[in-house]
Amino acid sequence: MKHMKRVQRLSQPKIVTQSSKQEWNSVTSRKTKKRTSPPTVSKRVMELALPKNLTTLNDFSKDVRDPFKVRPSALKAICSLRTKLLARPKYVENSFGEPRNNVTP
């Protein structure tokens, strides 16, 4: 029963409030004086990589290493990019029509 409760709590989106930010700041300021705000990830990256039910940065950092947590749409985009890059010609012809192998596209 305890386990079920925990799962339920995790699936609900957490709201990052001012107090939680201050809490984070106080924790980090003990370790390093430089950082004053929690690390941020751009919204687009979050949208691509996060499954729908995870909304906070903490959840993001926990699950970012699990490849199955990436949304299929993001995976599709990554794969299409990869195939485009692999489909590039390996060599470029010089002015005499001969292939130059050492040219990077």
Automatic annotation (TrEMBL):
Keywords assigned by UniProt, alphabetized? Repeat
Q: Where is this region: Disordered?
A: 1-41
> What InterPro entries does this protein's entry cite?
SPMAP2-like (IPR042401), THEG (IPR006623)
Q: Where is the composition biased (Polar residues)?
A: 9-29
- Name the domain of life this protein comes from: Eukaryota
| Protein name, entry field | Uncharacterized protein
